[in-house]
């Protein structure tokens, strides 16, 4: 699953991120409520782990804004406020589950995976399309104009990120975080190398190029 963790305690956030990634999940972090809301609205997540007490915007306010916007992403609320009234308040605000601090990671993992299974399969995106290119996220296949394109795992993740933002500029920082899970610039040409390989596979044999470099900004996949 792709999971967004909104937690202002950096140590706690990193602990959860590391644990979830070790069992195969993809994890993004937000350190305050405003950033958390922005990230939740700008990407497709399978689940959110949301702390109640956050700077800039509290967790319940963030959750209410998502639900009012029609976002049905499953949400696990974390909080040091563990009384019955607090749990009821969180669930009534739109939370799918509520876990009081301190907690064991094993229980957190079980609860996240449980709320993830509650999602209506019909609402989960399993295929992406941009122009004449299609990606099947379950079969892990890509075709362009009906022709199958073979990609390495990292190339697939790179193209998935570009297709999810088709028609928009995807910055190098976004690619480093979402494809390589780097939250800093390693000052290498790793992105350029993979973009070059991906471009050779999806554009070389076709008349119209889809992957464009936006000088000084990043990359854009033609929609």
Description:
- The protein is of the alpha/beta class and 223 residues long.
- The protein has helices at residues 10-22, 33-42, 59-68, 84-92, 105-117, 153-164, 172-179, 190-202, and strands at 2-6, 26-30, 47-51, 75-79, 97-100, 127-130, 133-136, 141-144, 147-149, 169-171, 211-214, 218-221.
- Strand 11 and strand 12 (218-221) form a beta hairpin.
- Helix 2 (33-42) runs parallel beside helix 3 (59-68) and helix 6 (153-164) packs across helix 8.
- The chain is elongated.
- The model has no long low-confidence stretch (mean pLDDT 87).
Descriptors:
four-stranded antiparallel β-sheet, five-stranded parallel β-sheet, 22% strand, 223 residues, Rossmann fold, single chain, Arc Repressor Mutant, subunit A
Structural category? alpha/beta
> What is the name of the CATH class of the largest domain?
Alpha Beta
The portion of residues assigned to helices is 25-40%
CATH topology of the largest domain: Rossmann fold
Q: In CATH, what is the homologous superfamily of the largest domain?
A: Response regulator
What is the strand tally? 12
Distance between the termini: 25 Å
Low-pLDDT runs of 5+ residues are: none
Mean pLDDT: 87
Major sheet size, sense and barrel closure: 5 strands, parallel
SSE string, helices as H and strands as E: EHEHEHEHEHEEEEHEHHEE
What would the principal axes of the Cα set say about the shape? elongated
How many discrete structural domains?
A: 2
**Sheet with the most strands: spatial strand order:** 2-1-3-4-5
Per DSSP, what share of the residues sits in E-state strands of 2 or more residues? 15-25%
Radius of gyration: 19 Å
Secondary-structure arrangement, i.e. CATH architecture of the largest domain: 3-Layer(aba) Sandwich
